[in-house]
Specification:
By secondary structure, the protein is of the alpha/beta class. It has one domain: Rossmann fold (3-Layer(aba) Sandwich). It has helices spanning about 20-25, 50-60, 75-85, 105-110, 135-145, 150-155, 175, 195-200, 220, 225-235, and strands at about 5, 30-35, 65-70, 90-95, 120-125, 130-135, 160, 180-185, 210. β8, α8 and β9 form a beta-alpha-beta unit.
């Protein structure tokens, strides 16, 4: 059995893993999720949030062998955490996530995609330190195949996303690259184009790449299917 630490994506919080956490525990694993700084219940001011502070929050929640799962934006913080200290990290799982390249920020990575389906739903703050997702467009972009009650509750909890961590490039070394790495593509994703996920997944061993026929929110669209894949990953380690 394995221990999982689940890391949310932009504008989300630990709350988005509410169905996956008990499902993993039912499979005999241990699992936790955290709010990154300024997300969920964390009260860190947006102006104080950096990619490094995201990574430090992950490391502070990591004790003993841990599989890190990063959703969407969360791909960068889990990689940064491994770069800072990989001693307790057994694997990195990128769930329809951006995968870092040296010298390329998440925002630049996103701009490399062949299309930008989220762009018209993003509302940048006047001080340009954060953005929110238009709640009228959040269902279509994030939750279109999720149970209505889950989607409604999720949209109500979306928070401002600090921009600085996403505009910060990082250096990728063997500290993260030599860890076991897995990619889970979501083929009905309306946020990160599925074809761009395929491009990013080409850097992975193909037996470490999995597919889910879901939206950008498999933790609500198919928590049982996601749990099955995560358990399968744990079984390979």
């Amino acid at each position: 059995m394995a221990h999982f630490l689940l890391i949310h994506g932009s504008c989300h919080g630990a709350w988005c893993w509410e169905h996956v956490l008990p499902a993993l525990r039912d499979q005999g694993h241990t699992a936790t999720a955290i709010d990154l700084p300024s997300h969920g219940a964390d009260q860190t001011p947006v102006s104080d949030v950096t990619l490094n502070s995201y990574a430090q929050a992950i490391l502070a929640a990591t004790s003993g062998p841990t599989i890190l799962v990063g959703h969407s934006m969360g791909g960068y913080p889990i990689t940064k955490a491994a770069e800072l200290d990989n001693a307790n990290i057994t694997a990195l799982v990128y769930l329809c996530a951006y995968t870092p390249n040296s010298g390329v920020s998440l925002a630049d990575n996103r701009r490399r995609a062949p299309r930008q389906p989220l762009l018209d739903a993003v509302i940048v703050s006047d001080d340009r330190q954060s953005f929110v997702v238009d709640p009228d467009k959040a269902f279509e972009r994030f939750y279109h195949d999720c149970p209505a009650k889950d989607a409604e509750r999720a949209i109500a909890q979306l928070c401002p996303q600090p921009i600085l961590p996403q505009e910060t490039a990082m250096t990728v070394t063997a500290a993260s690259a030599d860890l076991a790495q897995f990619y889970i593509r979501c083929s009905n994703d309306q946020t990160i184009p599925p074809e761009y996920q395929t491009t990013m997944a080409q850097a992975f061993r193909q037996d470490h790449v999995f597919d889910m026929p879901t939206s950008h929110s498999p933790f609500y669209a198919d928590p049982a299917g996601l749990t099955k894949i995560l358990s399968q990953i744990a079984g390979t380690l």
